[in-house]
């Protein structure tokens, strides 16, 4: 499966602004490899219209932008052509010279196909909503509008977010939102609390909150922005008997069954994390880490790393190979198989979740680990 050509405008814009990561540069060249430099012309015109600060721009400024595209030394001769013609021609030349396309082509590791027959597309927005009676609704394929109505509670979908309106609710029932591997989604609960679900996660919640507390149950990973209501504390229950209690706050819970720890990380406000061994009140920037079914410790993690998934990024900071593979398995909906011993390798860096699996594995091979993508969405880690 090939990289989506619709990525080209975004990658071009990041290249022009000098913000493209190594992974995005890889993806940029791959698209050019298949489509050719001529495919850039309309995107360069569009990018130019969006990026130019005013109706008039000097040749020097245009040349400076062109330099960013090609990384051309400032002392090189200046081509006085129309802006986008010059940029397209210069980029085509850059692809042809050793420091552009040929350099990229030459450094591709052997044994990992750029776009092999068994490549895997990245995950996307999507989820399954299970209503009280057991009816399931696939949210991936629905457009904006009314999704369902239950005992007076209206459920609507708007721009990729599910919302509950319980103003006329006559009865409280429970719904469950599930994100399979390769999907993530967001919803707004009846009290206004916003929830983002990562891949391979679930959230069970009432269609309307009543009583002294607001309580939901989850598995996997979720980010919460809790609507403030001091009289009705908000609780998140996790399968092993752990509760996270909040009033009005923002926090992330990482509680996959195949991970060694449950992690509750506070970004804003205050939460109390409680399990059978005790309870701790967190302040912003702290994380409660719980051994599955065991003791709790409090530490200060990198918050950007904790919430990177919500921004569509893999952020590895001292991550062992198995940790990285578990993240890839959930996002790409793949089975990871190790041939031989698991390499003792630590990963550092950032990758956009929009990459094809082959792009990710090719980048990972730069630390002397080899992969093979097989039919049936199987990723083989080679010794």
Structure, briefly:
The protein has helices spanning 8-16, 22-35, 40-51, 59-70, 83-96, 101-106, 303-306, 321-332, 357-364, and strands spanning 124-125, 128-130, 136-138, 145-150, 153-158, 161-165, 174-179, 183-188, 194-197, 201-206, 214-225, 234-238, 242-246, 250-255, 261-268, 271-275, 278-282, 287-291, 296-299, 313-320, 335-338, 346-352, 370-374, 378-382. The chain has 383 residues and is of the alpha+beta class. The two termini are 26 Å apart.
List the helices and strands and how they pair.
Elements: H1 8-16, H2 22-35, H3 40-51, H4 59-70, H5 83-96, H6 101-106, E1 124-125, E2 128-130, E3 136-138, E4 145-150, E5 153-158, E6 161-165, E7 174-179, E8 183-188, E9 194-197, E10 201-206, E11 214-225, E12 234-238, E13 242-246, E14 250-255, E15 261-268, E16 271-275, E17 278-282, E18 287-291, E19 296-299, H7 303-306, E20 313-320, H8 321-332, E21 335-338, E22 346-352, H9 357-364, E23 370-374, E24 378-382
Parallel strand pairs: 1-8, 6-8, 11-12, 21-24
Antiparallel strand pairs: 2-3, 2-7, 4-5, 5-6, 7-10, 8-9, 9-11, 10-11, 11-14, 12-13, 13-16, 14-15, 15-18, 16-17, 18-19, 20-22, 23-24
Helix pairs in contact: 1-2, 1-3, 3-5, 4-5
């Amino acid at each position: 499966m090939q990289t989506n050509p619709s990525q080209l405008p975004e990658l071009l814009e990041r290249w022009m602004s000098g913000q493209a990561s190594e992974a995005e540069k890889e993806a940029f060249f791959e698209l050019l490899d298949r489509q050719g430099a001529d495919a850039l012309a309309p995107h360069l015109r569009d990018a130019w219209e969006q990026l130019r600060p005013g109706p008039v721009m000097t040749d020097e400024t245009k040349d400076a932008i062109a330099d960013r595209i090609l990384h051309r030394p400032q002392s090189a001769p200046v081509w006085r052509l129309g802006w986008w013609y010059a940029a397209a021609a210069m980029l085509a030349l850059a692809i042809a010279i050793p420091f552009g396309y040929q350099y990229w082509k030459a450094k591709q590791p052997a044994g990992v196909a750029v776009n092999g027959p068994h490549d895997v597309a990245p995950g996307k927005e999507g989820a399954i909503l299970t209503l009280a009676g057991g009816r399931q609704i696939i949210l991936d394929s629905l457009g904006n509008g009314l999704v369902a109505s239950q005992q007076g509670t209206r459920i609507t979908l708007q721009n990729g977010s599910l919302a509950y309106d319980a103003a006329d609710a006559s009865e409280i029932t429970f719904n469950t939102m599930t994100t399979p591997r390769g999907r993530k989604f967001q919803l707004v609960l009846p009290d206004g609390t916003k929830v983002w679900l990562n891949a391979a996660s679930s959230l069970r919640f009432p269609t309307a909150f009543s009583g002294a507390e607001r309580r939901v149950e989850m598995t996997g990973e979720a980010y919460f922005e809790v609507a403030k209501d001091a009289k009705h504390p908000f609780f998140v229950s996790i399968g092993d008997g752990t509760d996270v209690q909040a009033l009005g706050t923002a926090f992330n819970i990482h509680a996959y069954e195949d991970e060694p720890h449950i992690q509750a990380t506070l970004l804003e406000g205050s939460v109390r994390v409680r399990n059978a061994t005790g309870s701790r009140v967190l302040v912003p920037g702290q994380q409660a880490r719980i051994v599955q079914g065991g003791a709790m410790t409090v530490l200060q993690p990198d918050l950007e790393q904790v919430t990177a998934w919500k921004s569509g990024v893999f952020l590895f900071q001292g991550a062992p190979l198995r940790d990285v593979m578990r993240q890839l398995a959930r996002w790409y909906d793949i089975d990871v198989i190790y041939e031989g011993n698991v390499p003792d390798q630590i990963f550092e860096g950032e990758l956009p979740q929009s990459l094809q699996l082959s792009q990710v594995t090719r980048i990972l091979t730069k630390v002397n680990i080899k992969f093979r993508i097989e039919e049936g969405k199987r990723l083989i880690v080679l010794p």
